[in-house]
Amino acid sequence: MKLSKRDFLRMSAAGLACMPNSLFAQTDMRAVTARVADIQLLPDDYGKTQIWGFDGIAPGPEIRVTQGARVQRRIINELPDPTSTHWHGIRIDNAMDGVAGLTQDAIRPGDSFDYDFVVPDAGTYWYHAHNRSFEQVARGLQGALIVEEPEPIDIDHEEVLILDDWRIDPETAQIADTFGAMHDLSHAGRLGNYITTNGVYNLAKNVKRHERLRLRLINASNARIFQLALEGLEGWIVAMDGMPLAVPQPVEGSFLLSSAQRVDLIVDVTAEVGSAGHIVQLSRDESFSQVAFGVTGNGTSARRGTPQPLPPNAHAMPDLGSARDIGLLMEGGAMGGMRGAMMGGRMSSMRDMMETGNFWAFNGAVGGMDGPALAELSRGESVRLKITNDTSFPHAMHLHGMHFHEIAPDGSLGALRDTTLLDRGEVRDIAFVADNPGKWLLHCHMLSHAASGMMAWVNVA
Ligand SMILES: [Cu+2]
Hints:
By secondary structure, the protein is mostly beta strands. Helix content is 7%, strand content 45%. The protein contains six helices and 34 strands. The chain has a six-stranded mixed β-sheet with strand order 12-9-14-19-16-17, with no helix packed on it. Strands 25-22-27-32-29-30 form a six-stranded mixed β-sheet, with no helix packed on it. Copper (II) ion binds next to loops.
């Protein structure tokens, strides 16, 4: 509903205070259409690739607002499949979390859903499909959600960098239609063969020497863990998963960015004029430029000092002394040695599990949204969750609705995150205050793993 100036005048005469909220609610509900589109994803000498994208592009349109703002988006589903949209890392009202099957029904083709929420925290977030996400995110349904600090920070400019990998059939230039392949489900997830930043395989930006950049990195891939380093750039990690670090952490060597994780860097361009700085991706036996920053001239003559920390987001600190202890044992997968697990209320052999595409278990049961909650939590209570990765693969565990602290080996509270990466065999304690009511998913963000048993939820009431 759009109101004319005259309508407003008439209403102010009647007294705006009496105006129902629903009228306000509709004033900025912008439409985003999830649809099929053909884009030039591969280099120009290949044909176009059919994707599923928000507004037909991948990444989808950037959503950029200021901390505390209200975001309203009508997601119109023009896909052939039901979908839903999750606002990853936003401490959101449960009804707006976008988890089909837990917080809402999937949006059927031809239908729409109005998402309407406030963003409490500044930082780098993202949005993505959350129905059959192992397929829908792989087809391109993701985009950046940037929440700016109220006051600008001391940088020259910033770049949002969405890292992704695609599994492409080079013969046809099309996304490989191998969603839910047994090997992906049971091993390291759906890894791609074509790596992009912002949908481009050779993203390059022009910068000036000694410029200070803020780089907002988002890993939108299904399963790839990026190992990244800087070259010709000196940098500090200033935030992880949107949440500022109390002390900027210098980047020395490399750092990991798992599926769904974000990192905000402040970098100074140190490469010489005429050369380039790089974000370098290290893989097993080679390294290559993920993003190039061509240095076209001198910015200032001198560099700035160490960056200030970003202003913190208000966040309740968990009390470990009184925290409720919960355990989460992750088992299964290839080379995991698991013999079976509870599935649909009865003990099932690994063979029976495999026949239904399930390979993993949480606390001895194939996880899903239909079973009971992992924990019934009282609003405001502190929780310590011990996650044990007793599998042969790394996993990126994501909690919806609330950020958590990773607990350091010395027992102190570490950085706030919404997604924590556990290497194989690793145990991690996390702690949080269950201060957001509702049903919150806790799952592996290697999306093929979530689809094959690595899913749980907690209820906060
Ligand atoms: Cu996993």
